[in-house]
Automatic annotation (TrEMBL):
Protein name (Swiss-Prot/TrEMBL): Glutathione peroxidase
Molecular function terms, GO-annotated: peroxidase activity
Keywords carried by this UniProt record: Oxidoreductase, Peroxidase, Signal
Superkingdom in the source lineage: Bacteria
UniProt xrefs under Gene3D superfamilies: Glutaredoxin (3.40.30.10)
Signal peptide limits: 1-21
Organism: Pseudomonas spirodelae
Recorded family membership: Belongs to the glutathione peroxidase family.
């Protein structure tokens, strides 16, 4: 009897895992290493069903001061469900050489409280799956601090170039549209 119960539990676990993957949008399937941590960010468990702003970042870019505005945006809308994910990348040769230095820029210099991943490739064939899907739904980042607004169903509703500041009215409108998608 125990053997059959174990088989049934294993089959049920496999079926439930497949059902969860089917419910998780393609954009959010996978995980990323959290910045300066052994923890991983399970994209589906963390962001599924929530509006999301994804930004590829760099510590030594002319747009790096946008961290302050991104944090302000996060604080302004997080009670309404908005999530922000920062993904450092050295694809444009402006990211710090170490996680410690990247973390200092984000957490100490700019007071970032939203999730940040370890440095990841975000362009071309080496891009992590998240950025491959963002590119498929819109376009690949052309520079650091490209911004992608994703609705609660995992669809990109708008993308913005590096020069778009976090307080830009068009970006705010896209964020509010994504927030409305969770209702």
């Amino acid at each position: 009897m125990r053997r059959y119960s174990l088989v049934i539990l294993l089959m049920l676990g496999t079926w439930m895992g497949a059902a969860q993957a089917a419910e998780c949008p393609a954009l959010l399937q996978g995980d990323l290493q959290k910045l300066r941590s052994q923890e991983r960010i399970d994209l589906c468990a963390t962001f599924a069903g929530k509006p999301l702003l994804v930004v590829n970042t760099a510590s030594f870019c002319g747009f790096t001061p946008q961290f302050k505005g991104l944090e302000a945006l996060y604080q302004r809308y997080k009670a309404q469900g908005l999530q922000v994910l920062g993904v450092p990348s050295d694809d444009f040769r402006q990211e710090a050489d170490s996680s410690e230095e990247t973390a200092k820029v984000c957490y100490v210099n700019y007071g970032v409280t939203f999730p940040m991943s370890e440095t990841q490739p975000v362009t071309g064939s080496a891009a992590v799956p998240l950025f491959k899907e963002l590119a498929a739904q819109s376009q690949a980042p052309r520079w650091n601090f490209s911004k992608y607004v994703v609705d609660a169903q995992g669809k990109v509703v708008a993308s913005f170039p590096s020069s778009t500041t976090p307080d830009d009215p068009a970006l705010l409108a896209a964020v509010e549209k994504a927030i409305a998608s969770q209702r």
